[in-house]
C-alpha cells in the first residue's frame, strides 16, 4: 500500500504578502511617474503653443500695416528693436500689464526685429536674410532695391521647473506694399 501524503493548505506567508506589497508599490510609483511626466510635457507644449500664438498675433498686426511706398517701409521703422512683456493668465487672458497678486499668469517677452535696406540701421550685423532684402531686384541696376522688409518676432519665457534658461519661439515673414 502506498501512502499518499496530504498537504494541508496553510495560506499565504507573511513574506509572500510583503513581496506582493513591494511589487504593487513599485507599479504604483512607476504609474505616478508616467502621469507626472505626461503632465509636465503637456504644460510645456501648452506654454510653447501660447508663445507661438502671441508671436503669430504680433506678426499679423505688423503685416497688416504693410510697407509704405514712400519712404520704403518707413512705417515699419518704429517696430524695429521693439521689446515688451505680456502675461498669459491661466484663464487665457493676454494682459499688457502685470496681473495682480494671486492671479496665475506666465510672463512672455516679445522682441520684434525689422530688417529692410530702406530703413537705415535696421540690418544688424549684415543679417539681411536669404535672399537678401537689400539686394538689387533689377539685374545690373545698382540701387534697385525693393520695398521689402523682413519681420521677425521672437517670444521667450522661462520654464523654471523643467528647463534651464529661456525658451524661445521665432516666427518670420516678409512684408511689402
Automatic annotation (TrEMBL):
InterPro entries for the chain: N_methyl_site (IPR012902)
Q: What Pfam families does the annotation carry?
A: N_methyl (PF07963)
Keywords in alphabetical order: Membrane, Transmembrane, Transmembrane helix
Keyword Transmembrane helix found: yes
Membrane-spanning residues where? 12-35
Q: Which domain of life is it from?
A: Bacteria
UniProt-recorded name of the protein: Pilus assembly protein
Species this chain originates from:
Pyxidicoccus fallax
